[in-house]
Amino acid sequence: MRDQQSRGVNQSDLVAGLAVVIGCGVAAWIGAGYGLGTPRRMGAGAFPFVLSLLGMGLGALVAVMSVTAPQQPPVALRWRRLFYVTASFLLFAVAIEPLGLLLTIPLVTVIGAKADPTAKLGESALLGIGLALALWVVFVRLLGLGIPVLPGVG
Amino acid sequence: MEILSNIAGGFATVLTVQNLLFCFAGVAMGTFIGVLPGLGAMLGIALLLPVTYYLTPEAAIIMLAGIYYGGEYGGSISAILINVPGTPSSAVATLDGHEMTKQGRAAVALFTSAVASFAAGSVGIVLMMLFSPLIAQFALSFGSLEYFSVLLLGLVGAASVAKGARVKALLAVVLGVLLGSVGTDISTGVQRYSFGVPEFITGISLVALAMGVFGFAEIVSSSEGTAGAHGKARIRLRDMVPSRAEIRASLGPFRRGTAVGAFLGALPGTGPTIASFMAYSLEKRVSRDPGRFGKGAIEGLVAPESANNAAAQTAFIPTLTLGIPGTATMALILGALIIQGIQPGPRLMVENEELFWALIASFWIGNLFLLILNIPLVGLWVRLVRIPYRFLFPSIICLISLGVYSVQLSPFGVFVVIGTGMLGYGMRVVGIPAAPFLMGFILGPPMEENLRRALMLARGDFTVFVTSPISAVCVLLASAAIVWPTMTWGYGALKRRRRV
Question: Average pLDDT of B160-169?
Fold first, then answer.
């Protein structure tokens, strides 16, 4: 199998390796600012600084190895899923306090279900209403948490 | 005899309505999430973690542990019936287990698997009862120096057995430790990487991180449709009993599988998954007729099933007695204990003796529940596999958001889930494993503290790590785990180059 694949740059590895090098570089820079101290009396920055350097090294290794790696099929990012899943979490975060659990959960369910193209609106809405009631019973009635239930209630 | 009175005390604690209920909830949830391919015990534990804030420590740990070993049972059901491992550790069970289903022996396979799991789990529990007090006794003499080195070995071990490229697994550990250093530094009071966000002063929440990396990322990257569209096998109770020849053929693999599993489960880094693979290849090697393997040999099912369940139980030994989890799932359970204000380690056996024995007693009861859940009720789980993901995933999104929100009654945690979830998805796309990442995150802070204290006591002299015997052994093993594969990799690369 492997011999048939052409060799070339594994782009996702290259990008990830470089991103790690940059990220850890920034972390090392900031970490050094917290004070390195001496081995006998380690400063707050010593541990993160050393780890950032290690991370930079490993990231660089990933980037270097990507150049000679066996060619991989290009990574297909799941933009549709990523979009709807992120959107549903965001919606929850902004809606839970003003709207309350009973309205937020069905909305989140409908948006979250759209991540799957075969989802039907009616089905998702029904699921959402059922979930809202079930979660209300468990979290508010049984566990007694102070989660907002409806606008102005809870 | 002390053990007997201790375990009796443990049963007395567990046999309350409340604790039995949480034990049952744990193993049922574990089986459910184990049956569903792609969703592992990790997600199950993360989902129920917020609930444990409102429970007693006993109930919390009994439930979370139940999810863990319940998942091992559940994973085998889908492996046998639909040829899709529900959990990584049941991947081997597909080889001969599903083959048996194709031959119409699904019922026997399920029954044998459940019984072997139960028996091997029981052996694991007995070993845990016998060895935990001894290891804790030994570990009481550990100082910061030894702890740092054992933690180092645990993390390197976790990275070197993770699937995929070793460099990326090591990178995952480093990134996890780095992320774990966010928040106030305990010894100096300096706020690190918090960028003035008040919620980050206490660090990134473990609950939100685990939900992001194992929930959010899983939903985005898992495949579509239903898991069990083709799970149609009909299972009848009276078909379940294996023949006498099958029982006889199973005894040897059971013994060897249990031994392999119990041993590997207790080691740092190796968990049920590796144990099941090792047990299978061992069985194939000792078999008089290796050609039968992969064609529905009952030995090929019993050995890995015994191994992963024995390992699932003995994995608790280092977690509880040393405070050093062997796998990411154990690390999460360790994190849950810390949230409860209980510090796992050798002192746990002294200070929280009751909790320890209650947990052991709950293992017996939980495994008994699982036997009931798996043999007469197996049909129910098979039907659950057919829940389409378009219903399952929105429900999980709601559970995650509400769970994270409920911890502090603030939407901030949900934003952290989005952030860590995107990070987790990105890592998954490029093949940086999440399990060592989470282990680094949980074990990083204690590692830093012990390093700092050890160096202070040694007056800044690094050589103590190789001159003190226990530490030297750990450092040596950890270096070997890094250097050895690098050497073989370099050799392989050289050979490839010559061929081109």
Answer: 75
Three-state secondary-structure class, residue B196: coil
At residue B293, what is the residue type? F
What band does B493 get if pLDDT is binned at 50, 70 and 90?
A: low
Domain ranges of chain A: 2-67, 79-142
User: Is the pLDDT confidence value at A49 over 90?
Assistant: yes
In one-letter notation, the amino acid at residue B187 is: S
B30 in contact with chain A, both atoms CB, cutoff 8 A: no
Q: Which residues of chain A does B181 touch, with a Cβ-Cβ cutoff of 8 Å?
A: 47-48, 51
* Dist. CA B162–CA B10, nearest whole Å: 35
* Chain B residues inside the 8 Å CB shell of A112: 393-394, 397-398
Task: Assign 3-state DSSP to chain A and report helix, strand, coil percentages, each to 5.
Answer: 70, 5, 30
pLDDT digits (tens, 9 = 90+) for B304-329: 999 988 998 898 888 888 888 877 88
| Separation CA B240–CA B39 (nearest Å) | 27
Q: Domain locations in chain B?
A: 2-499
Residue B2 structure tokens = 């002390």
Question: Using CA atoms, how far apart are residues A151 and B4, in angstroms rounded to an integer?
Answer: 56
> What distance in Å separates the CA atoms of residue B2 and residue B129, rounded to the nearest whole number?
11
Of all residues in chain B, the one with the smallest CA distance to A97 is B411
Burial grade of B197 (CB within 10 A; 0-12, 13-18, 19 or more): exposed
Radius of gyration for the alpha carbons in chain A, expressed in angstroms and rounded: 24
Whole-angstrom distance, CA of residue B360 vs CA of residue B362: 5
> What tens digit of pLDDT does each residue of B352-409 get?
888 888 888 998 899 889 888 888 887 777 777 777 778 888 888 998 898 888 888 8
Amino acid identity for residue A13 in this structure? D
**Tokens 């989005």, residue?**
B418
User: Cα separation of B20 and B28, whole Å?
Assistant: 12
Q: Are B196 and B28 in contact (CB under 8 A)?
A: no
